[in-house]
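re: ur question from yesterday

yeah so i grabbed the chain u mentioned. its 192 aa long if i counted rite. heres the sequnce exactly as i have it in my notes:
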Amino acid sequence: MLRLAILSSGGGSNFQALIDASRQKKLGCFQPVLLVADRPCYALERAHEAQIEAELLDRREWKKTLSEELNSLLKSKNIDAVALAGWLSILSGSVLEEWKGRMVNIHPSLLPRHGGEGMWGMHVHKKVLESGDQESGCTVHHVVAKVDGGAILGQAKIKVCPDDTPERLAQRVLVQEHRLYPLILSQWSETL
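ran it thru and got these structure tokens back, copy pasting raw so excuse formatting
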């Protein structure tokens, strides 16, 4: 079993989807063993409830050295692969080099559209609607230095409805994220 670390900054619903998939034996060769949060958030409570080790690397405390601290932590816990699930801090330096090809992210749009710095959460869904896109969805991709610029591993698409609000669109995309992420991680595990 590959030891999977999940990075989160918020509610942790994708983290929960990965926990559920692993417990239902739908996550291939991965076992979530560590949650790392960059701010106090509900994902830490989910980890506690699931009896998964959790660490807080508060971005305000670590500021410029967050990526290096994260890299050291992941190595010290014998992690095999990393999945970002609502992680909002931009990673750089050694953590990207050390985990190249073994770190993935899920993004709430059909990349390359509506990706990059500043494009997270509700910002993405507002942009989709403002752009008049006919479809939206989510993308799982490798993490590289360019934000949301890594190779795409998989996407799930939905139609944008005429009465969509950013909130309604976000809810519908999130349903697809919870389906897509465990599926792609299972497929990805066969390549590691």
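noticed a couple things. The longest helix spans residues 166-189. also The first strand starts at residue 2 and ends at 8.
anyway ttyl
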